[in-house]
């Protein structure tokens, strides 16, 4: 089983291209050693990650893009098998790709910026409710909140005083920004997602 995230940049034509470098760097980080990512049609992208990293990856990509205000990102997460693995991600096929495309296509109608699709209707229903709730926070991240979320996700085992030192901000401003971003609640949701996905994949 693999996870494919399909996304595009909202309002990319109205803003400078600063988001492109942010996106490229973020895709390199999240794809890790597999290095399977692609940008196409100018502002659309696909990336392959481990299924248990899906929510964390989506939060990270969103934080990276929202640093370039007013840019934002729409993403469809698909989990499933990969049938034909090709060098180019866009030429590969399988349920993961079909589900990712279907999740992405559902976004406009559902008026949300993030959704997941697997081969389990019950799982999707449950996780998509959690995602909708998390988007109340994520869709309103300002630049400072996005910067601190990005930093916190890059340095997960680091205490806030160290994050403050890395960012050059005071500890109280780091703490305030993460609180505003509802970072701890999003991480709790991610923990629950990881538990549910590992249960589903082990069936």
Features:
203 residues, 54% helix, alpha+beta
Describe the structure.
This protein is α+β, with helices and mostly antiparallel strands. It is built from 8 helices and 5 strands. The protein is globular, with a radius of gyration of 16 Å.
**Biggest beta-sheet profile:** 5 strands, mixed
End-to-end separation: 12 Å
Q: Number of DSSP strands? A: 5
Outline: globular
Helices and strands: which structural class? alpha+beta
Q: What is the number of helical segments per DSSP (H or I, 4+ residues)?
A: 8
What ranges have pLDDT less than 50 throughout 5 or more consecutive residues?
none
Beta-strand fraction estimate: 15-25%
Set out the fold topology.
Blueprint: E1 2-10, H1 18-31, E2 37-40, E3 44-49, H2 54-66, E4 72-80, H3 95-110, E5 114-117, H4 121-138, H5 143-154, H6 160-167, H7 171-180, H8 183-201
Parallel strand pairs: 4-5
Antiparallel strand pairs: 1-3, 1-4, 2-3
